[in-house]
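your task:
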Amino acid sequence: MSLKEFADTLPDYARDLRLNMSSLLADQTLDSEGRKWGLVLACAHGTGYRPIVAAAEAEVAGKIDDAYANAARAAAAIMAMNNVYYRFVHLASNPVYQTLPAKLRMQCIGNPGIDKADFELFCLAVSAQNGCGMCIDSHERVLTQHGVKAETIQGAARVAAIMKAVATVHATL
């Protein structure tokens, strides 16, 4: 099932989500198809909702290579861990946690196997889904250093929002 077909199963009260998914699938503003489809896949995995993951996997098949697909999956996986840990560090009132080493393996961030800016964009989008401001700020800084424009970063957040909303509504059906 394609993502459009998946979104089309949403009820009428979620019509805006269906339209936003259609716009996302037609969007050409994310600089490259690999970047767009990697974002879609990372954000689908970031929802943790298997039906939208399956639809996204079907959608991106043949549109991105294995390196981009695996990097998108890796971004969702590593952010599932990091967003919890760094949100804890940020929210804890005891400042000592900010001084302690994380002791979490995160090598895929340093060597994602694809363009660093694209991987950071995937991580930022999943961090937006997971509500980790500390991670959003960190990835946004790296993206800015790589010359990624604010409109592209905003576009990644849009992908995250649409995928999360579609998964959330679908899960209630």
The two ends are 17 Å apart (CA to CA). Residues 66-91 form the longest helix (26 residues).
